[in-house]
Design a protein that fits this description.
Blueprint (H helix, E strand, L loop, with lengths): L1 E9 L4 E9 L16 E5 L8 H5 L2 H8 L2 E5 L15 H16 L9 E6 L1 H12 L6 E5 L20 H4 L12 H10 L6 E7 L5 H13 L4 E6 L5 H14 L4
Parallel strand pairs: 3-4, 3-5, 5-6, 6-7, 7-8
Antiparallel strand pairs: 1-2, 2-4
Helix pairs in contact: 2-8, 4-6
Length: about 250
């Protein structure tokens, strides 16, 4: 595997940013006339992490090598994958600019069936937000211990040093907004959109377990094609290392 640390100026963010990429190495990539286009997983970090976190705390390189899939891991700060009220437009960056940039500089496929998105905690929320906002871009999405109820994070003190006001402004609720996964899912169902395959995982000892169960029940009430898995585990890397392996086996990569 090739491990790339990419630093570039983002027009959307109007600043330098960084992305970590795991790229399968094959003989075809070293020839001058290759048409190889790789399947790609966009892997999104949690609230207290950055683009390096999966390469430091999981075996993502080995899993990606075994499946011959590229993995793109951006940094989005504390943004909750939103265009922030007082900050940067991280949702637009990941949704549009990052994808375009990656397709232009790396041998990645632009086909919907070859593109996937996943993440843990805040990144699990972000993965479903991206997939349910633009279901035409991804064929599969996975949320691991995801922050499925965004309103929880409007409360002061949920995380030490974290304040949601720079992201969402002075609001009491995000229900029925573009940040609400429940609304996004219902809207796509009403439009009869072709949704990506969805995988939702959460440990039964996780503080977000109840939120995950509630979202699962809502999704199934709408007859959503959702693969839900739970089992022993907390909100930590021991569980996410296991869950990442499950995601890689679940994705249509063979």
């Amino acid at each position: 595997m090739a491990l790339l640390h990419m630093h570039f100026k983002s027009p959307t963010l109007v600043m330098q940013t960084n992305v970590t990429v795991v790229l399968p190495e094959s003989e075809q990539l070293f020839t001058s006339q290759t048409n190889t286009k790789l399947k790609t997983l966009y892997l999104l970090h949690g609230l207290s992490n950055d683009s390096s976190i999966y390469t430091r705390f999981t075996n993502i390189e080995r899993y990606a090598s075994n499946k011959n899939v590229a993995v793109v891991m951006p940094s989005v700060d504390h943004s909750f994958y939103a265009d922030m009220k007082y900050g940067h437009n991280y949702f637009s960056f990941v949704q549009k600019e990052l994808r375009t940039f990656m397709l232009n500089v790396l041998p990645l496929s632009d086909k919907r069936e070859d593109n996937f998105v996943a993440g843990h905690s805040m990144g699990g929320y972000g993965a479903f937000k991206l997939a349910l906002t633009n279901p035409e871009l991804f064929s599969a999405a996975a949320s691991l211990s995801g922050a499925m109820d965004i309103n929880r994070f409007l409360q002061d003190g949920v995380f030490n040093g974290f304040n949601a006001k720079p992201i969402f402004g002075e609001v009491d609720s995000l229900k029925d907004t573009e940040h609400d996964l429940y609304k996004l899912l219902k809207d796509r169902q009403c439009e009869q959109a072709v949704l990506p395959k969805l995988l939702q995982m959460c440990g039964t000892e996780d503080y977000l377990y109840e939120d995950n169960v509630n979202f699962k029940n809502y999704a199934l009430s709408l007859k959503t094609d959702l693969d839900y898995r739970e089992g022993p585990g907390d909100h930590n890397w021991e569980y996410w290392e296991y869950a990442i392996k499950e995601v890689m086996d679940w994705l249509p990569l063979d």
